[in-house]
Design goal:
Strand content: 35-45%
Order of helices and strands: HEEEEEEEEEEEEEE
Largest sheet: 6 strands, parallel
Distance between the termini: 29 Å
Structural class: mainly beta
Number of strands: 14
Shape: globular
């Protein structure tokens, strides 16, 4: 999957009980989700070869990156997590959480 397709999937309206299942996907170019509102997703075991940025993004539902690999930075500065953030087993070269907020 290409990052633009992921962005299109994740910016669809949030619906309670529905989520994007992207477990195990691999992204070979940078994924940039800065400043957007995201629906629920499961990107567990996904691989981001050139980093993932979601600066200032609003995560409305579940945000699962369990066991994901981020080669490069995982930049979540200023992000707002409204519900369920899971990062267990995450591997990243750098994790930036400055001014991030977790409400759930």
């Amino acid at each position: 999957m290409i990052p633009d397709a992921l962005r299109d999937m994740l910016t669809q309206p949030w619906v309670h009980g529905a989520h994007f299942d992207g477990r195990g996907l691999r992204f070979t170019t940078p994924v940039v989700l800065d400043g957007v509102t995201l629906r629920s997703f499961d990107l567990s075991a996904a691989v981001f070869d050139q980093g993932l940025s979601a600066r200032g993004a609003v995560f409305r539902g579940m945000a699962w990156l369990k066991g994901a690999e981020v080669h490069g930075p995982l930049d979540l500065r200023g992000a707002v997590f409204r519900n369920d953030l899971r990062l267990d087993g995450l591997r990243a070269d750098a994790l930036h959480l400055t001014e991030a907020r977790c409400d759930g």
